[in-house]
Amino acid sequence: MKVLKNFFYNMIYQVLLIVLPLATMPYVSRVLGPDGLGKYSYTNSIMSYFVLIGSLGISLYGSRQIAYVQDSKKSRSRVFWDVTILKIVTTTISILLLAFFLKIYNEYTSLIIAQSLTLVAIMFDVSWYFIGIEDFKKTITRNVVVKLISLLLIFSLVHTKSDLIIYILIITGSTLIGNFILIPFLKGQIYFVSINKIHFFKHVMPILLLFIPQLATQIYLVVNKTMLGQMDSIKAVGFFSSSDTLVRLALTIVSSISAVLMPRIASLVAKGDKKGVKDYMDKSFEFINFLSFPLVLGLIAISSKFIPLFLGKGFSVVSNLIILESPIIILISWSIAITNQYLIPSGLNREYIMSTFSGAISNILLNLFFIPNYGVYGAIIATLISEMIVLIYLLFGIKNKLNIKKMLFSNVYKYLLSSISMFIIIIVIDTLLPETISSVIFEIVFGVLVYIIALFFVKADILLKWKHFFD
């Protein structure tokens, strides 16, 4: 039940991550416009490289190591201080590199400096520890409070295009404050460790093995924006970012299960429980299919009416981009489940590294061809193809370790047929209703009801046995 409890905590937070941007995006898109959003996304993509150096995959590694020893306070304390000191070192190096970069790069300097608060936030982030001990309540409560405060500040302080820097400071500053808030909860969780017992160097090589694929992943997450800004226009970055943000918001609902299961599976790996690992993988993939198929088809069905109402008529092109990009919800959900729930806890670094590099290299090469010829549509196409390549590589990597057919496709036809039924109904209703927000809300609610009813007709196990699904 602990897994189910943590999943619901995480699900509440993931829903909040969707609701809050849905509340702010219409306002921010109209106030800042495509150009302002483009500048934010472009400078954020630049900062992402320094954030990557500062974080160095340490949080993911730290969560895994804490999960391995979560029952021993002494062992937890040693891991915590080793990882914390190493993170202070890497973020300090990243800040120095950023200062050097700003001496030779003179464009959008003030915006990049505002974005740099994220680096300081990383230095004081201890959420990875609580994830490792499977205590999601504290991190999620903290995140909810911080997100709500940032929402109020955005509406109160961001009023014109010139307030872009204020918008950035609210986003980055709230992250920093949120990380400070979590630190007092460490009291009673860990011991202080004398300096001569801290050996953070021994963690460098294992962390680098996790950092390499994260570097590759980050490259093909942000390189689209950077290359669009250089090869097309800042406005194109704004369009791409809007589509990508909305699609990945939907993705967060599905991927929340992977965040919850990673420490649990790591603990099972440490105990040598292979059967338990396989059972959790099978169950989690059925859950992913249950959520991802209706999200993809639902997003496609409502996008043409929703986007002009939500973002404004200046963003109408985003409707087409979402229709093209939305299938990545399924592709990435499957990839995240394989990497975060199986490869990382099992220490299968080679498969993880090679899959992400295949995605990063293919994404860059595809962008070089597609962006000059198709602009922002080309960036979306490159993203889709690269995510397919990553997934295919991962499936080949685990084909001898897990039952892929059972894991991916168990009862998948039930979720696909139910989603198609929902999609057809929404499309019919969409042609009959006026272009209003209330119409979109009705379509979403009615679509969810149709999907659930259809699942009962096909006797989907996940509805009939939900209480025991993650025992």
Outline the fold blueprint.
Blueprint: H1 2-55, H2 58-68, H3 73-104, H4 109-115, H5 117-123, H6 127-132, H7 136-157, H8 164-182, H9 204-231, H10 234-270, H11 274-311, H12 317-325, H13 328-346, H14 349-374, H15 376-398, H16 404-409, H17 412-432, H18 437-457, H19 461-464
Q: Explain this structure to me?
A:
The protein has 471 residues and is an all-alpha fold. The chain contains 19 helices and no strands. It is globular. The N and C termini lie close together (5 Å).
Please describe the structure with a list of short key phrases separated by commas or semicolons:
0% strand, mainly alpha, 19 helices, 471 residues
State the order of secondary-structure elements, H for helix, E for strand.
HHHHHHHHHHHHHHHHHHH
**Over all CA atoms, what is the radius of gyration?**
22 Å
State the shape: globular
As a percent range, the share of strand residues is: under 5%
| Mean pLDDT reading | 81
How many E-type strands?
A: 0
In whole angstroms, how far apart are the ends? 5 Å
Structural class: mainly alpha
The helix count comes to: 19
User: Biggest sheet, in brief?
Assistant: none
- Sequence stretches where pLDDT stays below 50 over 5 or more residues: none
Share of residues in helices: over 70%
